[in-house]
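Methods — Computational structure assignment.
A single polypeptide chain was analysed. Its primary sequence is given first, followed by the predicted tertiary structure written as C-alpha cells.
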Amino acid sequence: MNNRPSWHQYFMEMAYLASTRSTCLRRQVGAIIVRDNQIISSGYNGAPKHIRHCEITGCLREQLNVPSGERHELCRGVHAEQNAVIQAAINGSSIRDASLYCTNQPCVICSKILINAEIKTIYITESYEDKLAQELLAEAEVEMNIIDRNTGMLKKLL
C-alpha cells in the first residue's frame, strides 16, 4: 500500500507547515511558490521584520472593529502570499509561470501582486469571499483550484 502524498498534497501540507509560523491573531495562513515540483519560496502572515508582532501589540483590526475581507491596509501584518513573493525577490528567484499553494484564497491585494508576478496557477484549500479578487484572477487567466486536503482531489474554481 502506497501512502505517498501526491505533489498537490505535499505542497499544500508545506503551506500548512509555513502557516504555523504565523503571528496573526485572527487567521494563520501559509503559502509556497513552486515551479517544476521545486519550492522557490515560502511565506506566512505576520508583522514585517523588526516590527512588534500582534501577539505583543494586539490586533489592530479587532481594535478598530474592521470586518474580515475589508480595509486590508489597516493591519500590521504582511500576507503569506506577499511574503512568499518578497522572499523570492530577496533571493533573486523568478516566479514567472510558477504555482502558488496557499492555505486560503488570496485577497484582492494579493491577487493583483500574483497577477503581476506572473503566477499561472493557484491552489487553495479554503475559499474566501472576495469577488473582485476572483474577477481579476479570471480576467488575467490565472487558474485557481481548491484541493481537498484529505484526498488531494482538485476542483477548478477559476
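Note: Residues 32 and 42 are 4 Å apart (CA to CA).
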